[in-house]
Design brief:
The protein is an alpha+beta fold and about 650 residues long. Helices cover about 30% and strands about 20% of the residues. It is built from 16 helices and 25 strands. Helix 3 packs across helix 4, helix 9 packs across helix 11 and helix 11 packs parallel to helix 14.
């Protein structure tokens, strides 16, 4: 018995000695609420100590750090020529950021920057995580999960937050998500370890053997074995067959019919024809105008071609490339629904399709229907100008007057008429019973703006009704939180990737800032007087031309603004439409607008692009049109008649 006791005692002492290193290894992460995620990042060499020997678990995580964490956790390797102007090769996370961008996990800003040292908000992390979910082919389905502060989440990001919450990657507190709150390194680590658990990374698995959701599978495709790609055929709107290939190139060679597609984990990556839908907000680098365009989630684009890593698309004439993770390819024969136009009682109505729910979600009227549109038929358009029928046959060209009316036009309505219209419109929306419009006739920030709008029109030569239409759309008739709390009627400094809550002293100050810092110098003046390349035509337009190219990611933003103008006209008697401006479209690049009707006169400015709308104020004299200058200028302006085509607008 004594021998057994001694042996037991020795075993106890040995055991205590063996535990000493573990006790000694306790550090600042021991017992931390995000310890598992933090130690996971350390195991991936993603998280290292700073100069003071700390992992900084409670410090705000930056955009560059979070991109680096994802890159190392996902073991990303493929790179492309994507570069950001504010990330030199010497930047500590430069390689990881490039890898994440190449995989479509991150996108930069419209000016070509990434802002790696900026603290990242929780909603922007959610968007990156959704892209990672797509890249890893983690099944996600459609989610309707919302938080109590869902309205505070940027509209285009709500689905990403909902998907992350449904998969239990993202978690809020007491029912709130706090989208604009900066995330900590600890929170980021927990998001990532949960993501990688779903992806099947054994290093991220729970001690009990992992989560019940399983790892990254081949989407139930059991016949291809270890094959990465499969060729399938479209039959009655579904995919059949299962011919597996190890490379994209081998699968591509095996495609012999237009009805065949190439899939990767049941996601179509190549097809003969169809269209493309964005899964999330993306920055499309347009090769057509050599500029980056913000594009909202749920945007339909023309499919041109694709390879193993990217998809070539055309958005309203703008050609560029997007990563597979950012888009869904839909063959025409598998389409469950598409956004369409129709003639409803002589007006053009646009009905939008929501690809997250596979339902038609909303519609709006924005003008008179063109004469070729027959009632009861559906029409489709990539740019809101050229329309086809369901078979893809051309049906006609139509320029909506309000959508393509240059900003230098003057409305014929007085300040008093504008004020009367505003009050009638507020009474109308208030009567709907929608809670956000309660007491609109008393609280709206649009009340009494008639004189201010007409003063802007006289001083700055910008159409008062156009500014009002813009304000109505962007501020929910002056009742949005931005309008009510910050006097911000136009969403100034609020973008898809960088919301900024700037408060204006008054609505008048907000309007002046719109005119003096946005429209006048950058969106209307050709070339941009501040050097910013936002001037793509002085009209609200579409993604083809106009403010819409850069001002808003919603491809139908210009048409929706036009709809507000049209409805105001309808209520007030169509004064502007009954005495319309003549509008022309330029037909060449590098076209000079001059101070006189001859090439001997000095150029006022030059249109770098073709297809720019101009207001023609007199018939041609000696081969020259007199036009209204897009540059703020009180004298006469002229352009050669040979390079301008007069268009018939629908009004």
């Amino acid at each position: 018995m004594k021998k057994l006791s001694i042996i037991a005692l020795l075993m106890t002492v040995i055991g205590m000695l063996l535990w000493q290193p573990q006790l000694a290894s306790a550090d600042e992460l021991t017992g931390h609420s995000h310890e598992k995620g933090l130690r996971y990042l350390i195991s991936k060499n993603a998280l290292v100590k700073d100069a003071k020997g700390s992992y900084r678990p409670d410090a705000n995580v930056t955009r560059g750090e979070f991109a680096s964490y994802l890159t190392k956790a996902m073991n990303l390797e493929a790179t492309s020529d994507i570069v950001f102007k504010d990330i030199p090769d010497t930047y500590v996370h430069a390689k990881d950021i490039k890898l994440a961008a190449s995989a479509g996990i991150i996108t930069g800003y419209g000016d070509g920057s990434f802002k790696p040292n900026a603290a990242i908000s929780r909603q922007h992390m959610a968007v990156m995580i959704e892209r990672a979910i797509n890249y890893l082919n983690i099944p996600k389905g459609t989610s309707s999960i919302t938080f109590k502060d869902n309205a505070a989440i940027l509209k285009d990001y709500r689905q990403a937050v909902a998907i992350g919450a449904q998969l239990e990657i993202i978690k809020g507190a007491n029912g709130y998500f706090m989208p604009e709150k900066n995330a900590t390194i600890g929170q980021a680590s927990s998001f990532i370890v949960r993501l990688m658990q779903l992806a099947g990374d054994p290093d991220a698995a729970e001690p009990n053997g992992g989560n019940s959701n399983g790892g990254n599978t081949n989407g139930g495709d059991t016949n291809t074995g270890s094959s990465k790609y499969a060729v399938k055929e479209i039959s009655n709107g579904t995919l059949v067959g299962n011919q597996g290939f190890s490379t994209f190139e081998a699968a591509e060679k095996a495609v012999t019919k237009n009805t065949q597609v190439i899939v990767q984990s049941d996601k179509i990556v190549k097809m003969s024809s169809g269209y493309v839908v964005t899964n999330n907000y993306v920055a499309l680098k347009s090769e057509t105008i050599n500029d980056s365009l913000g594009v909202a989630a749920n945007t339909e684009m023309e499919y041109l071609s694709s390879d193993a890593t990217q998809v070539k698309v055309r958005l309203a004439g703008q050609v560029g490339y997007l990563k597979h993770a950012d888009v869904t390819l839909i063959p025409f024969s598998m389409s469950k629904g598409r956004s369409y136009y129709e003639n409803v009682n002589g007006e053009i109505k646009h009905t939008l399709y929501d690809y997250n729910t596979n339902k038609y979600s909303s519609s709006y009227v924005f003008g008179k229907a063109p004469s070729f549109m027959k009632q009861g038929e559906k029409y489709y358009s990539w740019d809101g100008i050229y329309f086809t029928n369901g078979n893809g046959s051309s049906k006609g060209e139509a320029y909506n007057y309000y959508q393509f009316l240059p900003a230098r036009a003057q409305t014929q309505y007085t300040a008093q008429e504008l004020d009367a219209y505003i009050m009638n419109k507020l009474a109308e929306v208030e009567s709907t019973g929608v809670s956000s419009y309660k007491d609109a006739t008393k609280k709206s920030k649009l009340i009494g703006l008639g004189k201010t709008l007409k003063d802007v029109e006289e001083k700055s030569q910008i159409n008062a009704m156009l500014v009002l239409a813009l304000a109505q759309h962007e501020s929910a008739y002056g009742m949005s939180n931005q309008a009510q709390d910050l006097n911000n009627l136009f969403g100034l400094y609020v973008t898809d990737t960088n919301p900024k809550n700037k408060k204006f002293d008054s609505v008048v100050d907000n309007i002046n800032e719109l005119v003096e810092k946005f429209l006048q110098p950058n969106y209307i003046t050709p070339g941009g007087s501040t050097g910013k390349n936002f001037a793509n035509g002085a009209v609200v337009g579409s993604k083809a031309l106009g403010f819409n190219v850069k001002y808003a990611s919603d491809p139908y933003w210009g048409a929706k603004i036009a709809g507000h103008y049209y409805r105001a006209e309808k209520a007030l008697g169509f004064k502007d439409a009954k005495n319309p401006y003549t509008i022309g479209i330029t037909t060449t690049t590098g076209l000079n607008v001059r101070t006189g009707a001859a090439t001997s006169f000095s150029p006022l400015f030059t249109y770098a692009r073709s297809g720019m709308p101009v207001i023609i104020t007199s018939s041609a004299t000696n081969g020259w049109y007199e036009v209204l200058s897009d540059k703020l200028y009180t004298g006469k302006a002229f352009v050669s008649k040979d390079y301008v085509q007069v268009i018939n607008t629908v009004k």
